[in-house]
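Review box. Two proteins, two foldings.
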Amino acid sequence: MAPAPSSTYSAITLNINGEKYTLPVDHRTTLLDALREQLDLTGTKKGCDQGQCGACTVLLDGRRAVSCLQLAVAAEGRAITTIEGVADGERLHPVQQAFLDLDGYQCGYCTPGQICSALGVIEEHAAGWPSAVTADVRPEAGAPPLTAEEIRERMSGNLCRCGAYVSIVQAVARAAEEAQVAESQGAESDMAEPQVAEAEAAEAGIGAKGAAA
């Protein structure tokens, strides 16, 4: 068989988990195959290879994508997050920890995609995005309660052949609750900082304006 013409190949640079990788790819190569076969990032799993099971889910610019349907050349210039980039060194992400604590996996094959999808779900919900089961979809209604029904609908693109769905829903709910608590504590801290500075300045007898100067 004659080799493919060189015009079907390009050297691309992918930004994956904060690092840049330059590699030659056939224009028909999917992001999934580039990750697994060329970059040895095998945490992203190949399941159906048709966009139906969610095992290959990654984040593109923070949004969920099934990498088996995403061309590698089309991902150039975008921030790609795979399961290898979720943890902070040896410290697990709260979503990973919740899956571990609540047995949100059995064989583990679908787990990387489930976790990446859960990260997207939590961000989408925090941004107020409705789902197919959201009763009030008006923008002014804000984010709906993240009930088990909401989680099941939002995670429905990720299949688990072991049937660990009950624990997966519980893990997503716990991680989402922890994210909300962390966000509220961060907001309270941001509000408290100017007040603390003003109090310290007043105690020093220089006034807030003097302290700011």
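Next protein.
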Amino acid sequence: MPRAGLTTDRVVAAAAELADASGFESVTVSALARHFGVRDASLYTHVRNLQDLRVRMALLAGGELIDEIAAAVAGRAGKDALAAFAGAYRAYALRHPGRYAATQIRMDQSLVADSPALRRTAEITHGMLRAYGLTEPDLTDAVRLLRATFHGFCALEATGGFGAPRAVQASWDRAVDALHVALENWPRAD
């Protein structure tokens, strides 16, 4: 019988908060059980195992991230949409480091296909890139370029990896400018 007041959503939300406070790897079923003052077994009525918990965190964070991106890009196109998308992505990654780390886990593709938030992510991202005249397979390649650039930059920034005296924001702005130029001049697949 589930403990009164303990729900799957509450367990996942607490895991996300713990991830942001202490790091994604610190999230365990035992750590959450301690947080709620229950035994580990009490949580298994809400999540199957640690992997299930992590997938649920990834889906929660992915939904939050795309909500912020969607709000930022609404009514924009081209470079303005790209800059808004990039800015929202970076802000979320830096504000919620544990949740953001959860979005980077590998998930079963059937879970991805069944997730409204992850489908929405693809729709918004592809919609932004179609403004550059991209279609498949170029869309997939461009998405991978954006994700690699945004993730790499955010990961380095979060760990203090940029030691040069130049302002990190200035480098970010230049990276977004460079991505815009690359997308406008995309080499089309044969």
